[in-house]
Amino acid sequence: MAPALNTVPFVSVEHMMRLVLAIGVERFLTELADFIAADFRRWESFDKTPRLAAHSVDGVIELMPTSDGTTYGFKYVNGHPKNIRSGRQTVAAFGVLADVGHGYPVLLTEMTILTALRTAATSALAAQYLAPPRARTMALIGNGAQAEFQALAFKALLGIDRLRLYDIDPAATAKCLRNLAGLGFTLQPCASIAAAVEGAEIVTTVTADKQNATILTDNLVGAGIHINGVGGDCPGKTELHPDVLRRCEIVVEYAPQTRIEGEIQQLPFDHPVTELWQVIAGRAPGRRDARQVTLFDSVGFAVEDFSALRYLRERLGTYPFFTELDLLADPDEPRDLFGMLLRAQARAAA
Amino acid sequence: MAPALNTVPFVSVEHMMRLVLAIGVERFLTELADFIAADFRRWESFDKTPRLAAHSVDGVIELMPTSDGTTYGFKYVNGHPKNIRSGRQTVAAFGVLADVGHGYPVLLTEMTILTALRTAATSALAAQYLAPPRARTMALIGNGAQAEFQALAFKALLGIDRLRLYDIDPAATAKCLRNLAGLGFTLQPCASIAAAVEGAEIVTTVTADKQNATILTDNLVGAGIHINGVGGDCPGKTELHPDVLRRCEIVVEYAPQTRIEGEIQQLPFDHPVTELWQVIAGRAPGRRDARQVTLFDSVGFAVEDFSALRYLRERLGTYPFFTELDLLADPDEPRDLFGMLLRAQARAAA
């Protein structure tokens, strides 16, 4: 029997959760980081376009496509800071992989959870090249939806086992402490940002407000630390004071996009930055000395989603957590689309 | 109970067929044309961008987004002429509507069938303004997947009841004759293009080869006819000889896109054309006299898909042919995405 041409494997939220739990969160993050690293090493083989964004008063809806010439992927993602008030996620997403040869989708999946995982995996991957060696302590500033994923990625990839947590809302910190209990961390809630960064070798900022905030001022940033800046990810939304940026070696995903969306939107357009793929591919140095302050200015790029979709598809071979979705019209004879309709009518009448 | 925030209504191919049959193909086409006309009348309220295309040797994958500031829509569509050989459609599509206010998708649907319907509805809508009054005879050149939809749209909107059919492949014509039998047409298969256009007041060209073909040469085009050119719809794919184009009053959907993709890719970039919305909104004349040769150079534009999605969503209120898809992560507390995973684990262990 010929394979069905009309259906597309679909991974629901429920199936994504079962898949992540079956693999284990830390193993999932580690394997996903390997896929991201492999794709970053062949960076030049990807079609790269800035995301296609539809901005409105309340937020943005974006399409993020990319292709390596064989496989095509895109993600639909929104960003609506006020969504919390209506019980919705600030960011929700779904994604598609397709075969470039025939153009049909080969995978449709939820990507809200998958995006949280790929963002964390990318952060930890970058930190492997940028953080001080043998770092064990991370400040986690912003204890919202992303926080636990960041913590576990840094544990899995770098061995971070001491967390210093701060959020403007103590309830967010309490949630984070509850969720991370028993997962192998020493957890320290802190009363201020200054207290949280004390003794931390890595500082992760992942706050959600859509505004030019100043989470880190210059006096808080000591020599030798690595800053993992995740929350400054769209125009008008930043977390670091420009003085901090000027002291950092700055690594970004894709400079044309980050100069618009990242922390470096606060700097002149020609401020020198390194792209992460260059570091991973050995074309640029990572951390050079113990006193250097490094910054990964993360905004999220389509290639990371592509890697995540590719990893997911590969793992579904072992863990079949998907259903087949009747998404594509498949007449017996390709030119007979209307005849398919007539036959459906005949079946209904029978 | 609060409405579920995690699910998105999904219209499968099976459900789309049942919906179309429940409404009736001709009524569906007529109502859909009304939605398209309404959106074309408010053309200036739409964000319009050329489609985002990923080209490859074998075809193209496109994302076609648009928004009216309240609702956002996009279509994923491929175009792969060689797909017929593997039993796949040349063109397959799916689409999404989303709420601009919170950014969540509100509808996911198959769009292979819906695209065939919206293309035909747009063609017939344009012909209402461009074809000779009281036309009854149409030549249908190219008898593939689109042909019957075009025929029925012209019957429903203009009263066309005599069809003269030609295809390079007699099997395609035979399929078309079979499918259209008993639907109220006088059907005349023809041995050549010249025979097909004889006596026709409207000539629809809807062939599929990806090449600069010459379906209509100058000597075949008599005074007063309307040409509905549907098959010239991507770079390097045209159906009409440039001499024909130079004799026509040309109407397009969105000039910046059509100059790249349509028949007019063969003309200088400043050749005068009228946009269909101008005609529908009364800002430009349609047909002016009995001898004029008119051409609707159709390539398909995102606003038509938006109208089709909007129409579909409206009709689902009466005909609930959809299921709810678990596409969006919906933790009890929006910031607690990781906790949702932990609770799924606890449920699985229980």
UniProtKB/TrEMBL annotation, chains A, B:
<keyword id="KW-0456">Lyase</keyword>
<dbReference type="InterPro" id="IPR023401">
    <property type="entry name" value="ODC_N"/>
</dbReference>
<dbReference type="GO" id="GO:0008473">
    <property type="term" value="F:ornithine cyclodeaminase activity"/>
</dbReference>
<dbReference type="InterPro" id="IPR003462">
    <property type="entry name" value="ODC_Mu_crystall"/>
</dbReference>
<protein>
    <submittedName>
        <fullName>Ornithine cyclodeaminase/mu-crystallin</fullName>
        <ecNumber>4.3.1.12</ecNumber>
    </submittedName>
</protein>
<dbReference type="InterPro" id="IPR036291">
    <property type="entry name" value="NAD(P)-bd_dom_sf"/>
</dbReference>
<dbReference type="Pfam" id="PF02423">
    <property type="entry name" value="OCD_Mu_crystall"/>
</dbReference>
<comment type="similarity">
    <text>Belongs to the ornithine cyclodeaminase/mu-crystallin family.</text>
</comment>
